[in-house]
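[job 0417] fold request received: Membrane dipeptidase (Peptidase family M19)
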Amino acid sequence: MRIFDAHCDVLYQLFCDQDVSFERSSSLHVTYDGLKQAGVTVQGFAIYIPKHVRPESRFFVALEMIDYFYEKIVSQPNMKVVRSKKEIDQLQPNEIGAMLTLEGCEAIGESLTQLRTLLRLGVRSVGLTWNDANMVADGALEQRGGGLTRFGKEVVQLLNEQQCWTDVSHLSERAFWDVMELAHYPIASHSNAYTLCPHPRNLRDDQIQALIKKNGVIGVTFVPQFLRHDAHTTTVTDVLRHVDHICSLGGENHIGFGSDFDGMFETVDQLENVSHYPHFIDELLKHFKEEQVKKFLFCNFYERIPQ
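[job 0417] inference complete; emitting structure tokens
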């Protein structure tokens, strides 16, 4: 089965340790060999600027990560940059599509020019915040809980014009609802159901239903802390619970996966890295029909790519 994973943090790991090999390093959750072994069709690679980077350096660090994307990721044999449905359709059976995304607008400060530059370099999905506040909006862990700023609304409008995804993962609740009013192409690249795991990073039922109404996609993520809060070990069953819950809200055609591999310290048992996707697929097929699983794994994200 084809797989579209909307979010991983390999670029951040390469930034932290430039000696790490994307090809087959055991320290990475997502590697070239792992993607081939799993049969992944499209992998999203996020630009995430660490909190310790000074504001005046953040845009340069984003450019540095984009350089890693082109020099270390898509330089691998049969890795191809994808920005649209057409480019995904053109992938050969042995090729893997790599989609560039932005996790948090800290990199652009208060500059639409810098955002346009990142879009021109290949970014196709933009998360407005990480967990804190920036010039665009407040994040999920910002106590103030503010919504979109005036500049934030300009950012969403630009994403609409450029036919890019506006990613609501990591947003405060108020900012989420502001985005729902403005965004043409909203998604949550890596978020789970708050009803099952009451973490600020997860989406409440009315938020999930709003994304469904806006024809968005919710990328169920494999981060243990977002799957359950009452156990030391998480299993694939915990992931399935979130899929089932979103289905119960009418989300069968709006569920995808955004693993957040390489963005977590702990992992789900038997889903420790991208190469374990085949086992995960086997478990999905025990609980859902094959056509449903195809939607979850690939079709729901693919069909909602704006271009």
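[job 0417] notes: The chain has a mean pLDDT of 97. The domain at 4-304 is CATH 3.20.20.140 (TIM Barrel).
[job 0417] exit 0
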